[in-house]
User: Fold these one by one.
Assistant:
Number 1:
Amino acid sequence: MAPPGPAGAHPNSAEPLSRRIFRKFLLMLCSLLTSLYVFYCLVERGQTLSGPIVGLSGGGEEAGDPDRGVLAGGPRELAVWPAATHRKRLLQLQQRRRRRQQQQRRPAAPRDDSDQTVWEEETPGLVVGPGGSGAGSSVAEAPPGTLALLLDEGSKQLPQAIIIGVKKGGTRALLEFLRVHPDVRAVGAEPHFFDRSYDKGLAWYRELMPRTLDGQITMEKTPSYFVTREAPARISAMSKDTKLIVVVRDPVTRAISDYTQTLSKRPDIPSFESLTFRNRSAGLIDTSWSAIQIGIYAKHLEHWLRHFPLGQMLFVSGERLIRDPAGELGRVQDFLGLKRIITDKHFYFNKTKGFPCLKKAEGSSKPHCLGKTKGRTHPDIDPGVVQRLRDFYRPFNLKFYQMTGQDFGWDG
Ligand SMILES: *[C@@H]1O[C@H](CO)[C@@H](O)[C@H](O)[C@H]1NC(C)=O
Ligand SMILES: *[C@@H]1O[C@H](CO)[C@@H](O)[C@H](O)[C@H]1NC(C)=O
């Protein structure tokens, strides 16, 4: 006995024409919105997959984007449509603002380990398919928090490049200078994975790494790798393509610097002269003393060349790194396949310290010099002992110049 509802009524008799049209219109609007939503979800999905689903169709704007490094062009560097490019710029603006706020919050430590967060907010190569202007504009209008969740994740990668040595060669300086580059992400501390913690496994090692986005290089530095017998095979087992950087410095001044560092921690150790010799009157050098042993570069290099081709190693002069940091950084950026972004504009020389410092980085408030421990003054060493050491190292140095095809100028 229920009254006949509108659904049960005959359309022709019960409903006026305008109402029918309105219903159809509502129905169409609903399905349009639904399909837009489905499309939006599909695009999101396509972005998390690394396959070149959408990339085949686009003009590859990303590769020519001046903001990106040369490394752009990986499997996920796909086509970017104009709307997406615009959106990316908006995002980058937001990120810069956020970064600046973060830096203002931590003025004392502009580039410590916690600056990871700064780059975690960089956007990955954004992928939107054809018709992206419709679905895309709704993304652009979403609040920034949602965007961060959807787009700004990044992931931890095993390092593609490692500074493997040498101790007291200038590895810290090189890493700090390199970190100025937006496409370089590096661990602040020395992981010592391939010498001390190898049994913890690669997953543990990867967990130490900062998050990176496509086109960014993950790096670490542990100077003791260069003199660790097992390190070449272990790094090669991780990836045969790992790029290796060695900062080398005159082995005699390196040894003295090494000793000076130890002395500052343990003032009671014997003199440099007495540690240098096994038998001083016979002039017999104690090559088992690590301060001496590390400087026999040619011997260590032999082990590396059994696992890596020479072209995969870059030898940075520790002396030139101080005299002409921009010049050496140019070589390093080329070697890593990075755009030359770090130039002499980034440095100034502190005459008191005798050391180059970084000018304030973009958005940062303060200039950045290395800590107090860098550039210590060395104790006076008996000139006769220094000469004996020069004679000792000369043949090894010449061999090293030969092997690397580079004259580092330590022997006149
Ligand atoms: C040191 O060398 C000298 C000269 O060669 C030798 O007479 C002396 O026995 C050596 N001393 C030690 C402790 O080996
Ligand atoms: C240069 O280094 C000295 C000694 O470390 C430091 O006191 C000074 O502030 C530095 N000057 C500049 C301009 O960085």
Number 2:
Amino acid sequence: MGISVLVPCWAFVFLSLNSVEFTGSETVGEELATMSETETLVLSDSESSSCGCHSLKRERVASIDREASLLFEQAAVKYSETANNGRTFGQEHKQEVDSPNKMVLIPAGEFMMGTNNPGIPQDGESPERRVHLDQFYMDIHEVSNQEFQKFVNVTNYVTEAETFGDSFVFEGLLSKDVKSQISQAVAAAPWWLPVRGADWRHPEGPDSSITDRLDHPVLHVSWSDASAYCAWAGKRLPTEAEWEYACQGGLNNRLFPWGNKLHPKGQHYANLWQGEFPTHNSGEDGYTSTSPVMSFPANGYGLYNMVGNAWEWTSDWWTVHHTTDELHNPNGPATGHDRVKKGGSYMCHKSYCYRYRCAARSQNTPDSSASNLGFRCASQEKL
Ligand SMILES: *[C@@H]1O[C@H](CO)[C@@H](O)[C@H](O)[C@H]1NC(C)=O
Ligand SMILES: [Ca+2]
Ligand SMILES: [Ca+2]
């Protein structure tokens, strides 16, 4: 049963709260946000659900990240507050961005895609299945603002967020000014706001810019925008299988690109969220929003920020049903409604969005864009 509230047509959300997962001794609260096509906002506690990380969608079929569960606060992983002492992120990670992106060879091989020990079963992380891949090349980092700017300079490409005139922004990043102009907050998920004028050049709306973030991942790009960029660069989006295989960095059957421990030796290996979502991001890993695309240690293949920082689009359509047959170079269902994204973002925390694992996955409609969603490209040839 729910409460209904009238909201504008592009902010209709159907949000469900439920489902507590137990993973060892840690509790993982996951919630599903899916959009209804009605003109009401319904807050329900009776629907089956999964994390809302996938759920930003446009217009009648739009849904909102539910990347938090205050109900499950006590389950949050407690990070060492001193883990980052002595690291000076501001300077250490200031860098020249490779523009264009370097690519590395991901050697042909086989791996177990998915997991039989799913962190979030409703995402279709299971079952494990043997996948064979030909060699391919992968961008070593997320496509940066600078790279995307070059693309737009050359092609005059207009992104979908610019065409629609708005995009989803995490509320914690917005100025008071921008926030005050938004009357259509989604009651059930107030940390995602559809912001007029938010686009890749203005990640937090009209009063923001990327001039001091040219080396950060481009955001507010839809699947179509990402595909257009990769095609322009002579590349393509990676398949989900390629992305997941590349994520493992030559290791087998590990949770993360670097192994199974989230914080080896107390160090952060990815730009995630520390603190209590959505009220307090301690920035213990050095960043409360995106970080430069080559921050944090690269994995065994030399790939940066495969998990965390920005979510990354893949070319596959979304399904949660997988064959257990061995597959060669799988590229997902022939058709679908949503596209697969991988890796989680700077907004992910185990308590509400345990998706910064190689086998984790989520989805959005191809025209969706948000302040935590980017991409990188792959190709058969070295470029
Ligand atoms: C894109 O064009 C603008 C305006 O001419 C320029 O300032 C900027 O450096 C260009 N960016 C790239 C990456 O070429
Ligand atoms: Ca962070
Ligand atoms: Ca990433």
